[in-house]
Design goal:
- Helix 1 packs antiparallel against helix 3.
- The strands form six sheets. The chain has a three-stranded antiparallel beta sheet with strand order 5-6-7.
- The N terminus and C terminus are likely disordered.
- Strand 2 and strand 3 form a beta hairpin.
- The protein is 42% helix and 16% strand.
- The N and C termini lie far apart (79 Å).
- The protein is α+β, with helices and mostly antiparallel strands.
- It has twelve helices and 13 strands.
- The protein binds zinc ion.
- Zinc ion binds next to strand 11.
């Protein structure tokens, strides 16, 4: 969807109106309940699902005609507000049957997730939530193709940036990216569909090129130097200094399957369900969020400025001064950003590094000013001061 010359506030009002509009329309849908009776208003309204996150949204219904009518209604509604639905950014798709999708592809992409249903036998099939009979398909939610590709692009960029760095620096910058991504998809099927292993393989290929470059084309040497066996894992990209404290690259697959660090959400809970949806469609207006955070959340469109991934309801949200107070940053909105708790920790570590460097700079500055008052020389790494310059003049 594309906004023209319109204030973000108005756009937000327009987006909020959409849900009410669709729910009014839903009451007029002609449909029957599974038992053959003509459907009640409540049944009709519950048959239509509208999910919005910032200015991205999805409308779900089993009847294609209803979906097409929704598109018309939303388009008219937004036109009245001076906004339009960009045809290139909307698509009508069936989650199971590709032939019923506008572009012949089953499934839908939303918020970096791809949701698609696949035909499945009696035992692997999902069951009807109320009637418990098999539905003949199962649902898989995975990172969308674009999201997977973007993640690898990000990794590629970091590896390129560290072409001439130490392995440790490279690992330090890659780890939070990997952790954040796996965390975001922790309640999807990324692990079971092999997507996480695929991400590890793609990452390995890039690191291999990095290692080969560092060892002047000698891949064998690179493998010996930069990879090692740790525990049960054979090929761990890790530093060699000291076995116990080797700094190692996190593995997507390992993070995704560790039950202690990430609690998987059970069965029917999808990222589109329940609390997340409630929270996110009311983005920035949650009573649980202090106003300052709410404003930042809205201006960042629900995305953490550090890892560029969306905040989810269970995430810890922390305010951060973009330029640290100790470095002269002010306590005002344009110097504030909202970060995940774990991202904030990393940012703070970096801030402290700068603060220390700055203090050191300041120290040398003061020191050299003082020193300039004297006639001094170095000998064998020892500083000798002859006498006070001023006195020499006399
Ligand atoms: Zn973050």
């Amino acid at each position: 969807m594309q906004g023209g010359v319109i204030s973000p506030l108005l756009a937000n009002i327009a987006l909020h109106g959409m849900e009410a509009l669709l729910m009014e329309y839903a009451k007029t849908i002609k449909m029957r309940e599974p038992n053959g009776k003509s459907a009640s208003s409540r049944f009709k309204v519950s048959s239509l699902t509208f999910i919005r996150y910032a200015d991205d949204f999805v409308v779900l219904h089993r009847d294609l005609n209803v979906i097409q009518r929704c598109r018309e209604l939303l388009s008219e509604w937004l036109n009245d507000m001076g906004l339009e639905i960009k045809p290139s950014k909307t698509r009508i798709a069936h989650t199971l049957h590709p032939e019923l999708s506008e572009d012949g592809q089953a499934g839908l992409d939303f918020l970096g997730y791809h949701t698609q249903q696949f035909p499945a036998g009696k035992y692997r099939s999902a069951k009807h939530p109320s009637y418990q009979q098999p539905l003949g398909f199962k649902t898989l939610i995975t990172p969308s193709k674009d999201a997977s590709k973007n993640h690898q692009l990000k990794i590629k960029k970091v590896i390129k940036k560290h072409k001439n760095s130490d392995q440790a620096l490279l690992i330090l910058e890659l780890n939070p990216i990997i952790r954040g991504w796996v965390n975001y998809y922790s309640f999807s099927d990324a692990s079971t569909t092999g997507e996480l292993t695929r991400q590890d393989n793609l990452t390995y290929q890039k690191l291999r090129a990095w290692g080969r470059y560092k060892c002047k084309g000698n891949l064998n040497k690179a493998h010996k130097k930069y990879w090692k066996r740790i525990g049960k894992r054979n090929w761990v990209f890790a530093t060699r200094e000291g076995n116990a404290n080797a700094l190692r690259l996190l593995s997507h697959a390992e993070l995704g399957s560790s039950s202690t660090e990430y609690v998987k959400v059970k069965g029917e809970d999808s990222p589109y369900n329940g609390q997340l949806v409630y929270w996110s469609t009311r983005l920035g207006r949650s009573p649980a969020l202090p106003t300052r955070k709410a404003i930042l959340l809205r201006s960042q469109r629900g995305i953490c400025s550090w890892c560029c991934l969306r905040f989810r309801e269970r995430d810890i949200l922390e305010e951060d001064h973009i330029l640290a107070r100790a470095l002269g940053g002010k306590d005002e909105y344009k110097n504030l950003q909202l970060l995940h708790g774990h991202c904030h920790d990393e940012k703070t570590a970096l801030d402290l590094k700068y603060i220390r460097e700055k203090e050191l700079d300041q120290y040398f500055d003061d020191f050299s000013k003082k020193l300039n008052k004297y006639d001094w020389y170095w000998k064998d790494d020892i500083l000798y001061i002859r006498s006070n310059k001023r006195r020499d003049v006399h």
